[in-house]
Amino acid sequence: MFLLAYLALGAFAGVLAGLLGVGGGIVIVPALTFLFTAQGLPAPYIAHLALGTSLATIIFTSVSSLRAHHGRGAVEWRVVRRISAGIVAGTLAGSWVAAQLSTRSLKVFFVVFLYYVAIQMLLNIRPKPSRQLPGTGGMLGVGGVIGAVSSLVGIGGGSLSVPFMVWCNISMHNAIGTSAAIGFPIALAGAAGYMANGLVVTSLPPWSVGFVYLPALAGIALASVITAPFGARLAHNLPVSGLKKIFALLLIVMGTKLLSGLL
């Protein structure tokens, strides 16, 4: 039953990763939190396992999605090259910080982030294209912030990197495509960090490598790789702004559900 749930979650997350540029992690993390709780996995580490597993799945989703966007010429590789070093450093630092925090603290941080993303989408808040990309130091700093926040909430960084790129006069479609490419170093560094930091924990369930739960990774990755290119095609043919409003309402529902559990 849980394997089927992982497959369904992966299919949905893959479409979102290609379609909205927000990364499937924004759905994967709360869904895994609910599923891991239902499975009876160790309560003190449920959030850590959800975050680490989410980032590991994004490795596969981002590759599939970025290939589809690259085929349409929608990836700004100059941005990817300049921001990746900061992304990796920030992500590794964020995964270390997450390992020191309690599940409750991580859930609170994630709920706040969910509401932030939902409001951003619901009100269609976009920065005005008013500047160019910063220099090397600025790109490293921006990459560090995006990587650190992304690792703390288990996402591919699209909800942060897309607005930044639009602000720097990159078109929305190219920002979404480039975000898919940026998601790869975030996911790779984040998954490695969560694996390494979780290896010292002795009470994790079987089939875990650190804070990455392999059965969930396998089911989600398999389905998301298949559906991510479909989402990327839809991004070039559907009114994304309208779909984001519907998705924002879903995020509010999930955030409220998590919040009620904390209270």
From TrEMBL:
Q: Which InterPro entries match?
A: TM_pro_TauE-like
**Pfam families, from UniProt?**
TauE
Question: Where does this protein reside within or beyond the cell?
Answer: Cell membrane; Membrane
Lineage top rank: taxon = Bacteria
Name this protein carries in UniProt: Probable membrane transporter protein
Cellular compartments per GO CC: plasma membrane
Q: How would you describe this protein's topology in the membrane?
A: Multi-pass membrane protein
Q: Which residues cross the membrane?
A: 6-36, 43-63, 83-101, 108-125, 145-168, 180-200, 212-234, 246-262
Similarity section: Belongs to the 4-toluene sulfonate uptake permease (TSUP) (TC 2.A.102) family.
Q: Does the keyword Calcium apply?
A: no
Supply the alphabetized keyword list: Cell membrane, Membrane, Transmembrane, Transmembrane helix
